[in-house]
Amino acid sequence: MLTSKRRRRRAEVRSSGVLVPDTDDQGYKKMFRHMIALRQVARRSICSSAPRQVENKVPQKQKLFQEDNGMPVHLKGGSADALLYRTTMGLTVLGVGYVLYELVKAAFPQKKD
């Protein structure tokens, strides 16, 4: 059975969505103050930051990836894409080879003397 104090507290939480600390619970009060302070610091640092001018590179990338030069789209990014592709294919071949090796090893177990 809930006490009237707990019922009131649950009603406050349901109505506002924010847990309001009890007056006799110092731990919640301290945590609540820290949360409010953190919210204020975060708001100040976001609002006071200088706007940065960022160059829009999307049209250049669209032009690069849409040109018809016979290359697959996953290699049009340059040498980093080619290296990533070759590394992925190499690891895939090694993984398939290892799986086949383990399957053969499991199919023909060693004889115990």
Automatic annotation (TrEMBL):
One of its GO terms (molecular function) is oxidoreductase activity. It is found in: Mitochondrion inner membrane. Pfam families: COX7a. Keywords: Acetylation, Membrane, Mitochondrion, Mitochondrion inner membrane, Oxidoreductase, Transit peptide, Transmembrane, Transmembrane helix. Gene3D superfamilies: Cytochrome c oxidase, subunit VIIa. CDD domains: Cyt_c_Oxidase_VIIa. The chain crosses the membrane at residues 83-101. Pathway: Energy metabolism; oxidative phosphorylation. One of its GO terms (biological process) is mitochondrial electron transport, cytochrome c to oxygen. Belongs to the cytochrome c oxidase VIIa family. This is Cytochrome c oxidase subunit 7A2, mitochondrial.
